[in-house]
Request: fold
Amino acid sequence: MAFLFRNKSKPDLAKPAKDLLLRLCQSPPPPRKVEDELVKLLSQMKYVLQGTQETESSPDQVAQLVNSVIQEDLLYLLAHSIRLLPFESRKDCQSIFSYILRFKPASSLAPEPPALSYLVHRRPEVIIELCRGYRFKESAMPCGVVLREILKQYEDVASIILHDQSLEGEQAKTIDEIDPTEAPAQSGEGVFWKFFSWIEGGAFEVSTDAFTTFRELLTRHKQLVAVYLEKNFDLFFERYNSVLVQSNSYVTKRQSIKLLGEILLGRANYNVMTAYVESGEHLKICMTLLKDDRKMVQYEGFHVFKVFVANPHKSAPVQRILVNNRDRLLRFLPTFLEDRTEDEQFTDEKSFLIRQIDSMGPASS
Reply:
């Protein structure tokens, strides 16, 4: 296979690391020396890949190690078992993942690093298992860092996560089995949909990191996401609004409203925005945010509310709600967040909305 290399160097670190990881996952837990040996091997692997302050890494040894890691399926085991390792070894695993998934031999003409190509074409379960690292606080941050690094560069990784519908223990779809334009609507059971519960139900550090990855998924590869959201519109926004926008967590609530505004105002998401602002129920949720007792929630909610009001082709339900609440809105908006005197854009937008609402005329009696 093209992603394998022929250079040989010793010692082979991947095979014994795999054996120790398998023992570490056993129940009852193995003797402490198993963990100690594994810690040493992972540290050695990191130094082979990165070198040290005194010595540079050897290209031949790096190529051999990457080859061996792929052959032994070590990346899957590391993703699955990283939570069982001590803190410093979890950091070493993060470094090993990051380096291997970036590594391209000097002679390679392929657009992708060989290990990453292997994952998306042959072993997507590694990517899914990295996402499942959010089930445990010990693995959330190292898995999250690796995910965001590869998501920033490779749309195929985002596509695999978004279109996954596998249950734990099942095979995931490779990128060659996914056609975003022809993919069926999602069931809500795949790994992408687990992010909602990891964000809302996880410990603070898990929730925060999961949201950062979630945001990267939804904003980095815009055309891919636009097609996905159009196809899964009802399921996505029902869950987004009920779980995230109406979260009891201030941080989750504020971040989610801000991200919602970014999604709706993104140029690629025009069809998504149009469908969203046709809903009277969505407008009701948004108007509730304007009355929140926390100013930043009000502020982020305003940036979603303005999309409804500024829409020149309002649906009948949205028009009816705005007209029925016209007088209340005209009393409310002039003093809304009035202390933001230095925010000229906000002031201008608020004045525009007041004029728009005023021009609707009062509700007929």
About this structure: The radius of gyration is 25 Å.
